[in-house]
Design a protein that fits this description.
The protein is α+β, with helices and mostly antiparallel strands. The protein has one domain: NADH Oxidase (3-Layer(aba) Sandwich), CATH 3.40.109.10. Helix content is 41%, strand content 14%. It has a four-stranded antiparallel beta sheet with strand order 1-2-4-3. Helix 2 crosses helix 6. Bound molecules: flavin mononucleotide (FMN).
Length: 201
């Protein structure tokens, strides 16, 4: 599938076939493609919680206002991020550049993030947001549809998945085989409203 088709046909599907099983190999392929998304300094703060346990998904659905995608999609992926990723062996993030350069880059990461919790969080959300889009487009390539989700009780879901205290939950992406069409598009805003030429007035 070419990129334009994937972008144009990706929609938020909300009714999935609960009996369709996605294979581990397919999930691994989706995650491997998603992991090629960009992150600041290649820190890869994302931690993808792949939820297949039916009982757990029932609890998570309850924490998501009962939204059916949570249990009926073939897989629920919770995009979380490790806010400490930038300082956990940062030499790893440029290990192919050689020990000298990787040390220099690791220090620059530390200087950038140290004592700036707001930036650690912003960048975690940017990175997982980009990953979510890659994941949804990769799902199209594999013949699946998806729904991004933010409508859930973050604290309750955090407790259900034992979220570590230095991690955050960004969003869900549910992936499966749809049994109903997506809603008609809500309509995009006029391009003149969303594009600013050079600077705001
Ligand atoms: C951060 C975020 C949170 C969302 N949360 C939900 C949600 O909880 N439930 C849902 O059905 N759709 C959710 N959506 C999907 C949006 O409603 C959908 O993307 C939007 O209406 C545009 O439709 P489209 O994705 O089909 O183009 C969410 C989308 C985003 C980006």
């Amino acid at each position: 599938m070419n990129i334009t088709t994937a972008i144009e046909t990706r929609r938020s599907f909300r009714q999935f076939d609960p009996n369709h099983e996605i294979s581990e190999a397919e999930i691994e392929r989706l995650i491997a493609l998603t992991m090629l998304s960009p992150t600041p300094g290649n820190t890869q703060p994302w931690r993808f919680v792949v939820v297949r346990d039916a009982a757990l998904r029932n609890y998570i659905r309850a924490a998501a206002s009962g939204q059916a995608q949570v249990t009926d999609a073939s897989v629920l992926i919770i995009l979380t991020a490790d806010l400490s990723a930038w300082r956990t062996e940062p030499e790893r993030y440029a290990r192919t550049t050689g020990p000298e350069m990787s040390k220099i880059l690791a220090k620059s990461m530390t200087d950038f993030y140290k004592d700036r919790e707001w930036l650690q969080r912003d960048d975690a959300m940017k990175s997982t947001g980009l990953a979510a889009m890659t994941l949804m487009l990769a799902a199209k390539e594999l013949g699946y549809e998806s729904c991004p989700m933010g409508g859930f009780d973050i604290d309750a879901v955090g407790r259900l998945i034992n979220l570590p205290s230095d991690h955050v939950i960004s969003m869900f992406v549910t992936i499966g085989k749809p049994v109903a069409d997506a809603y008609p598009r809500g309509g995009q805003l006029p391009i003149e409203e969303v594009v600013v030429r050079d600077r705001f007035a």
